[in-house]
Write a structure and sequence with these properties.
It is built from six helices and twelve strands. By secondary structure, it is α/β, with parallel strands linked by helices. The strands form two sheets. The chain has a six-stranded mixed beta sheet with strand order 3-2-1-10-11-12. The chain has a six-stranded mixed beta sheet with strand order 4-5-6-7-9-8, covered by helices on one side. It is globular and about 55 Å long.
């Protein structure tokens, strides 16, 4: 009998309200970001909607929850604290993990404060020391039977009008080793990254600057599933790798209370992974706000198979 591992993915919740935007943290990027939040984002991304989605996730009883970035808006210490409160309601670090988004590591001027410290327990490999032992490092790997969750950090402080990401040579090198090791152990490998992982999936000022390098690592070392957010839209692409076809899945925002610039209402993916010696069967059920904006239900379903070349 094949065990089924249920993984929920939620992303880009942009929790409100913004608090603690004091002169100490003022700069051009945060000021324009704050004005945009006042004019637009605060009416779209609602904390009560994120909480409604979180309650529905809990009702589906997933084995694990992945949050693929952008819990914050301006990358402020007060936002990190409120996001940690939300994470703790979602679940403990043993069953929930996070990767940062560009709004979590938004701009300079925070000094030693970082979400990599505040959320560190949610950004660690199985068996790593607790948060007081140091800042989170990437990639991290969490193992659950024959399922491995690999968390990458694509976020770094960027200039005004830039929301790009970068993985970097060091992470890519470690990722390659992790993928090889897990492949040798016949694991189903699920990679988490905030930015879309492939070239051309988003305009250059919002894109992963080393997407080609990441694509080459995935092609050369293999993976079964890549989950991302960032574009606030549902996305699907494939990557042909040394070990078979990898599926790249993007999910829209988990807090959108209304349609905005073509971005749909809040949703999340509930992903069932059935690992077998020669293949992984993947069923993806997208659940989210229905047209009335107050109830959550099933929106779409997709069935996929990754046949291994192991």
């Amino acid at each position: 009998m094949t065990d089924v591992f249920k993984l929920a993915q939620i992303s880009d919740v942009h929790l409100s309200p913004i608090t603690g935007f004091t002169p100490r943290y003022w700069n051009a990027k945060r000021t324009l970001g704050y004005l945009n939040w006042l004019k637009n984002r605060q009416h779209v991304h609602r904390r009560e909607t994120a909480e409604l989605i979180a309650r529905d996730i809990a009702g589906q009883s997933p084995d694990y929850i992945a949050v693929t970035g952008d819990l914050a808006n301006l990358g402020l210490p007060g936002e990190y604290a409120k996001a940690l409160d939300w994470l703790q309601v979602l679940g403990g670090p043993h069953r929930v993990s996070v990767i940062p988004g560009n709004h979590d590591i938004y701009s300079t001027g925070l000094g030693p404060v970082s979400c990599l410290d505040d959320w560190a327990d949610y950004m660690r490999s199985n068996g790593q020391p607790p948060a007081e032992k140091g800042r989170a490092t990437f990639p991290y790997v969490r193992r659950f039977g024959k399922i491995a969750i690999i968390g990458l950090n694509s976020a770094y402080p960027t200039p005004l009008f830039i929301a790009a990401g970068r993985v970097g040579e060091e992470q890519l090198a470690v990722l390659a080793t992790c993928l090889d090791t897990l492949r040798a152990e016949d694991m189903t490998r699920v990679v988490l990254i905030h930015h879309p992982p492939l070239p051309g999936q988003t305009p250059p000022r919002r894109a992963l600057t080393d997407a080609e390098a990441l694509q080459k690592v995935l092609q050369s070392h293999g993976a079964e599933l890549v989950l991302h957010g960032h574009n606030h839209r549902d996305m699907y692409a494939t990557i042909e790798t040394i070990s078979g076809t990898a599926h790249a899945i993007g999910i829209a925002s988990g807090s959108a209370a209304r349609v905005h610039k073509g971005e749909p209402l809040a949703r999340y993916n509930l992903i069932s992974l059935a690992h077998r010696p020669a293949e992984t069967r993947i069923e993806i059920v997208t659940r989210g706000l229905l047209a009335d904006g107050s109830n959550v239900g099933e929106i779409a379903k997709r069935s996929l198979v990754t046949r291994s070349k192991r």
